[in-house]
Structures are given as structure tokens and as C-alpha cells.
Amino acid sequence: WALITVAVAGAILLLLFLICIFKCCCSKKKPKKKERISLCAVSNSTTTNLVPQLPDPILLHPVTLCLPPLQLKVGVKRAVELKAMDSGGTSDPYVIVYLTSDRRKRYETKVYRKTLNPIFNESFTFQIPQAEVSESTLVMQIYDFNRFSKHDIIGEVRLPLASVDLQHVIEQWSDLAVASKEEHLGEICFSLRYVPSTGKLTVLILEARQLKRMDSNGLSDPFVKVHLILNRRKWKKKRTSVKKNTLSPYFNEVFVFEVPFSQIQNVDVVISVWDHDKVTKNEPIGKLFLGCRATGNQLRHWSDMLSNPRRPLAQWHILQPPEVVDKALGLKSHLKLPLHSR
């Protein structure tokens, strides 16, 4: 029995030894397997995360173009101690507001009579592409209104948008500066008269002054074209005679158009001054247009005409660059309309 007991104990020890060796071998192999899987998982994760983050130029380009325009709201509150421009020691001030990135989009406040401390309290909204914000400047110009002569500028404020934090509301006082000089194209005086019962629109071209010099002798040979536009399409046109060698021509020529009362809201009257040339092509000096789509002094003149039927109303207007007026009109292709002019 002693020999049997020794043999069984030896067998048990050998078996335990073999089991220990087997566990050691298995425990060494398993970490290698886990480490390999872990590395593979990290590799796949890294690849999966990096690939979608690579910039795609085809996809990024339209995202830049589709950025919504910036909405800029400008409020004109009040002005104090303005310069007296009239003989009575007062002024008739109003404010023009525009951005240098789009000069054709202009707003005007109401005219306040006989005051040097007007309270406007008017606001205007501009839509400006975000790419143009850094290069655009907000301009506010104060003018003195005159019905029968040129509107005199009192001063202006220029505010570069790049220097302003547009994320916050800003309210501040600004000193008026001397207005920067722009090219002066001249002025023209004409009267408008509309009779709703007969549908007759009368345009009387009276005179022009201080026109731009177009000829080598320092003068011009001006004449005036009057275009009538309906629904943004050219309809009829008339023109005055040519006045030789003058910058202040006197015309006193009248044109009558038949416009039904139902169509008067859709009509634009374009007044353009040209320099006549026998050898080369006639060159435009300046333009302006009146109608319900007009702004500023032109819209005011048109509104006064509609508010005072049968009464001719004359007023001076400043000529504008032709390309600015053409862009504002946005004319469509020419189409003959079943209306008649006289």
C-alpha cells in the first residue's frame, strides 16, 4: 500500500505539472490574439474617421456660394445744429442712405421743413453679400431740399463696415464731414401733368444747366430723349431738338402720351440728356427716371403729380450716370404694346 500511495501521488503531481504548463502556454497566446484585434480595431477606426474628413473641393464650393446675405438694418435717429442753408436761417433737411457696394440701392428719409434739429426716426434694411461686407462703406448724406434749384448737401458720414461689430446693435453720434466730390453730370428741369379722365400724361422739357463738357471746345450739343416704359419694356420715345455749343440749353418742348389710369402705376418715364455728334455716335450725358419704382426726389415728383391731377408740376433734377439708371430699370426685351402716343 505504501508503494501504491507513492505512485498515485506522483501521478497527481505530474498531472498538475502538465496542467500548469498548458495554462501558461494558453495565457501567453491569448494576449497576442487580443493585441492583434485591438490594433486592427484602432487601424479601422482611424481609417474610418479620417476618410470622411478629407476636404472635397467639389462639395465645399457650393457651400460658399450659398451663404445667405447679411441683413443690415440702419436707423437714422436725429440731427442737431445743422448748417443753415436757406435765407431764413433754417434748412429743409433729409437724409440719403446707401452702401458703396451697391450705389443704385438708395433710401431717403422724409423732408423736414424749416429746422436745424430734425428728428427722423426712420430705419432701412439692406441685403448685402457676406463677401462684400469687408469692402463696403455705409454712407449717410444730409441734403437741403429745394423745389426749384439744386439740392445742397450739408454734410455726410461714412462708416466702413469692416470697422464695425455687426453682431451687436450700435447707437452713436457722428460729426458731419465735408461730402466727397462726385462727377457732376448736370441738372434738368421739366414738368409733369397727368389727367386721369383722359389718360393724358404731359412731359414738358424746360431747360438744363451745368451739363458735362463732351466736346473738345469745352461745350456740348445737347438734346433730350423721353422714353415711356410700361411693365419694364420700352414703349415709345420722343426727343427734343439739338441745341448747339451750350452747357445750359433752353428747350421748352412738350410731349403728350396717352396712358390709361389703370396702367399709370406700371409706367416709368425716363429722361436722358445726350450729346449730338455728326461724325461719331451720340453719347449719353446723364439719365434719371420717374415712376412708382423710383426713389428720392424722382419718386416725390411723381407722387406729387398723381396727388395733383391736371396741375403741371415743375422741378429740377440731378442727372445720374446712365449705367446706374439702366441697372435700376432692369428693362426686358423690346415689345410693341397696343397703346398710342400723341
Automatic annotation (TrEMBL):
Domain C2, chain residue ranges per copy: 52-174, 184-317
Coiled-coil ranges (or none): none
Keywords per UniProt: Calcium, Cytoplasmic vesicle, Membrane, Metal-binding, Repeat, Synapse, Transmembrane, Transmembrane helix
PROSITE patterns the UniProt entry points to: C2
Predominant location category: membrane
Transmembrane segments annotated in the record for this chain: 6-26
GO biological process, one term: synaptic vesicle endocytosis
Entry membrane topology: Single-pass membrane protein
Pfam families: C2
Subcellular location as annotated: Cytoplasmic vesicle, Secretory vesicle, Synaptic vesicle membrane
GO terms for cellular component: axon; dense core granule; plasma membrane; synaptic vesicle membrane
InterPro entries (UniProt xref): C2_dom (IPR000008), C2_domain_sf (IPR035892), Synaptotagmin (IPR001565)
Transit peptide among keywords: no
Cofactors that this protein relies on: Ca(2+)
Keyword Membrane assigned: yes
Membership in a protein family: Belongs to the synaptotagmin family.
Name this protein carries in UniProt: Synaptotagmin 8
Organism name: Zosterops lateralis melanops
Higher taxonomy: Eukaryota, Metazoa, Chordata, Craniata, Vertebrata
